[in-house]
Amino acid sequence: MSNRKAAVVIGLGIAVMLLVQSGDPLDSVRNGSPVWSDLGPLLRAVVCVIAGCSLLALGWLHGLLFGPLEVLRGPDDVGYIVEDGRSRAQAANAVRRRRKIGELPPVFPNGWYRVLDSCRLQIGEVKSVSVLGEQVAVFRGQDGTAFVVDAYCPHLGANLAVGGQVVGGCIECPFHGWQFRGNDGKCMRIPYAEKVPEFAKVRCWPSCEVNGQILVWFHCDGEDPQWTIPEQQEITKGEWVYRGRTEHFINAHIEEIPENAADIAHLTHLHTPAIASGVDLRYTNSKAWEFLRHDWKVEWEPESEPNKHCSQMSVKHALTVFGCHCPLLDVRVVARQVGPGVVFLLFNHSFLGRGVILQCVTPVEPLLQCVSHTIFYQSNIPPLVPKFILRAECIQFERDVMIWNNKKYISKPLLVKEDSAIQKHRRWFSQFYSENSPQLQYQRHTLDF
Fold first, then answer.
1. 259-292 tens-digit pLDDT
2. Residue 360 and residue 213 in contact, taking contact as beta carbons nearer than 8 Å
3. Strand order across the beta sheet in which 170-172 lies
């Protein structure tokens, strides 16, 4: 139960207790003079309301100071301009319909992708998740191991994640009770059959659980994982603790998102305005916040063998107020990308402490990406520090979302010499595509306006 809900329950309980109390629970013990009974029903109600509001305020304050920050945006919440009395959904759909797509690379690169946070899957629980254009069932066996299998039963197509039950290390179909083993997908039991056919099985996705996340491996040719996701020891040992997460849905090709790391010029133009100026790009350059500016120095480089699937971006951030540099807020970040879908943003500050933001980009559909940012930070640093960092990162990220949701992918962009890192990034990212990587397939309507 959340702190806010607990405060409501306690407040209501105290109010009911006080209103129905027949004696004098607040009477002075020493002189025996009545206090509560003399107030009358109206004043009793006022006291109860004040007590309840105080508890709610305490619960809110506790959450602000000590609880994690969670910002979960829907597909239509960010990145669209709403005009002419339309809803956000109508504005988003209008942009999607009229936007030029461009010549796209394959839509699902080979690599590891986050499907679920570990804390959201308890022992014996099943979750339905959309990933890479597929529906999967994610479940945790009785021994604590997490498994990912195709959601649809090969028997008659029931969704294993909708009403399915965990039995040991198997998932049981809610339709006819067929049981499929999580580690290889093999059918282990059919309640009404004398024998289970050898070929009876459901597709099992290679998966791993590391850094508090459950990830799956995708390869268009079904090849085994070619690298592993590194374990952040500070998270495993409990030295860095969970302080919050954000989640956004981006209407763009997956390659657009990591390419930002090599697009150094956009930082000066898009991310220099103060975070206080917001995320709507029509107003971020407001003169009211000109006195507060972010300065960036960035370098991006791919790594060499045996880590050619990794790249690193080094970021130096400085804050200026009325043109004066504030060295206390200088932050250095090393963003290490591992494959197409996972980035470690490592913070190291002499005063603000150390921590990491795990950025995960997971294709839901060909042009819909789920992007999550989960922050783990030193346990001895006040939670307000990492929560402020995550909030600031969220604001800067949502400025990018407004670009991504409305842009066209240019396969042969017009670049200048200073943009050379972009082409270098595209060559590096191309290693995650194979000859059989799925391409976007769509059908044009007969009437184009």
1. 999 999 999 899 999 999 999 999 998 888 889 9
2. yes
3. 165-167, 170-172, 179-181, 187-189
